[in-house]
Amino acid sequence: MAMALCVGMLDSLGADPDTSTHDLAKELKNPVSSLTLLPFQFNVEVGSGEGHPVGTTLNIEPVVPINLNEDWRIITRVVAPVVYQESSIPRLDDTFGLSDMELSLFLAPVKKSEDSLVWGVGPIIEFPTTTDPLLGPEKWGIGPTAVLVKQMGCWTFGLLVNHLWSVGGAGLRDVNATFIDPWMSYTWPSGFALNLESEITYDWEDSQATVPIRAGVSQLVTLGSQPVQFNLDGLYFFEHAPEGPEWGMSFTVTFVF
Question: How many CB atoms neighbour CB 212 within 10 A?
């Protein structure tokens, strides 16, 4: 019924601008689309340690698709985290700097299947760019990654998974972690959307899971001729490390090219 309502709303609009806004807003929910993106995601997380230290992270995440031919493309996605972390230990200075960067490469078909199923597979690579040992593992890492997306009417359902193993670097701790990111969203023809996801990480070295729930809203707008999407999300961590975050907020600005 929801899908029929969405299609009916689109048909009733008739105007191309509204339809293109809806299509573009939906494509932003697909990590292996043809869009070139420049998102800036600002996260504030409140820790569970003494004094509830606050950590802030600015993730710069450029996404660039590269067409190989008329059937296949490679989507490159970089995550560069700039971190400020308050100390939970008295008389110990706060920490600011760059954490380890990640590069994901997805091989994906250019055309969607008849059932609107989209997928991509490839490697994920971690670079030891950490400027302070407290902000990251300082390790080279590599592993597989895959994404699966299903879109029906106004609905988008997706699943992103990857696993990283460290293969060298100056850090003292090895990396052996699984990341699972299921999400769903409902997008209105106006470009407004409700979003729900969980970015689950399991650290096999420490046998520790981190299980947040991220829920929020997004709106696609046009500033002059530049499409921009704004996201506002709240986070709650159902499972976390002893000194890990308990809750947080996230604000994202995505420039669309």
Answer: 22
